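cron nightly-structures :: item 1 of 1
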Amino acid sequence: MPTESPPLPSIPPEPARPLSSFAIDVPEALLSRARSGEGAAFEQIYRWFERPVFTLAMRIAGDRDEATEVLQDTMLKVLTRIGDFRGHRDGSGTPFWGWLRQIAVNESLMRLRSQRRHEHAVEPEDEHLADDRTPPPPAAADAAALGRALAQLPAPTRSVLWLYHAEGYTHEEIAALMQRTPSFSKSQLARGGRRLRQLLESGIKHNDLEQAHA
């Protein structure tokens, strides 16, 4: 009798993509009012997206002044270009929040590229480095601790981490945005993820020691 073939190894499923903080459903009626130039409508849109834009810019730029300027430039472009957004009507299916987020990402990365001072701090890409998709430890839920840890990473590395883990971009999309390769994105995610977990875990131990001696 023929022997049964051994079962094929199971392939782990792709991790669920995170829900972006930009994912706000903006009513078409509000967009129409904003397109017509109604200030109150645009002010409402600004209030809804102010925090997501600033947080994104802060994570990429790592500086509050830079993040404030990214916020201002992003919203100015949204104001002047909102008439160009057609969303579902042009067949692209792009939601308004995705369109706005793309402007914010482009503005943040443009400032990052203009700095140039970060380039020496980034390790070269390594095609053989494992693609580490593991999210940061639970301590990352503490926004303050996460911000301190991310600030200690090179700017391109934390940009890859944030775009991948917080915004759900793929390596191919990140590569296109940062004008690099998917291998670069994978390398920065793996190295940066390990370093971020170390920083967060060391922060937990430090806090525990402080509380023990309090």
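cron nightly-structures :: done
The radius of gyration is 21 Å.
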